[in-house]
Amino acid sequence: MTKNKCIAVFGGTGKVGREFVKMALDSGYSLRVLVRKRSSFELNNDNRVEVIEGDATNAEDVTAVVTGSDVVVSVLGNPSRNVQIMSNATENIMKAAAEQSSPPRCLMISSVGVGGSSWLIKISLTLIGGRAGFKDYENAEARVRSETRVPFIVVRPYALTDKPANGQYKVLPGHTAHFAKPIPRTDVARFFLDCVEDVSRDGSCVNIGGV
Ligand SMILES: NC(=O)c1ccc[n+]([C@@H]2O[C@H](COP(=O)([O-])OP(=O)(O)OC[C@H]3O[C@@H](n4cnc5c(N)ncnc54)[C@H](OP(=O)(O)O)[C@@H]3O)[C@@H](O)[C@H]2O)c1
Predict the structure, then answer these.
(1) What is the CB-side half-sphere exposure of residue 130 using CA atoms within 13 A?
(2) Does ligand 1 have an atom closer than 6 angstroms to the CB of 180?
């Protein structure tokens, strides 16, 4: 059944993003997806998806995707250690959302370890991705949390896996989450999809793990 909501997606060619795109289409949403290269997006010819070529660090490209959407889902990643992709893209997304007369809700990926959610995971992430890489996620999250006009949810998954979906996820209680079960990327995508309709977590940072 078609749903009367347009979701703007950032990171739709990524591992979590591909799963989210499939699930959202199966659920009847129409999508507008920013991709860096059309050829890396499987569903170029699907008429339920408007594909916009661009870069999330470019403010004009981001505004074109966000304008007129009901919900923004950002499952972007920063594989490089020094380029501040997450914080630049997040600034662009939140600014474009805030400029809308009726701002879309923004569901933004982060990670357990960011925002004081686990010093233990913070140390591992800093060792793996470097200080600048971790700082990029910290800055991106801080930008979202400081937002007053745009409804948001910061989604912080524990370690991701490519294992098959459990069809479930665990919302980890409290602010800190040193230990949890790794979570399949498909179940992270499911959490994002559930948050498209469920506004009960708006304004919060949610740590999620596997079951
Ligand atoms: N690994 C873990 O255990 C773990 C745990 C918690 C959270 N996370 C976070 O979860 C997020 C999603 O993970 P994932 O595995 O799905 O990541 P991924 O497969 O690397 O996907 C990243 C996505 O971001 C896009 N992207 C990167 N820079 C961009 C730019 N400048 N403009 C537009 N798009 C851009 C990529 O597009 P292209 O296809 O063009 O490259 C891709 O679609 C990441 O932020 C990751 O750090 C990971």
Answers:
(1) 10
(2) no
Q: Is the CB of residue 111 less than 8 Å from the CB of residue 157?
A: yes
- Cα(6) to centroid of ligand 1, in Å? 22
| Cα(70) to centroid(ligand 1), Å | 22
Whether the CB of 80 sits within 6 Å of ligand 1: no
Is residue 109 lining ligand 1, measured as CB closer than 6 Å? yes
Ligand 1: which atom is nearest the Cα of residue 88?
Answer: 31
Q: What is the DSSP string of 13-80?
A: TSHHHHHHHHHHHHTT-EEEEEES-GGG-TTTT-TTEEEEE--TTSHHHHHHHHTT-SEEEE-----S
- Whether the pTM exceeds 0.90: the reply is yes
Over residues 138-163, the pLDDT tens digits come to 999 999 999 999 999 999 999 999 99
Does the pLDDT at position 1 exceed 80?
no
Domain boundaries, the chain: 6-209
Q: What 3-state class would DSSP assign to 123?
A: helix
Q: Quick check: 109 and 44 in contact, CB under 8 A?
A: no
CB 184 within 8 A of CB 166: yes
User: CATH topology for 6-209?
Assistant: Rossmann fold (3.40.50)
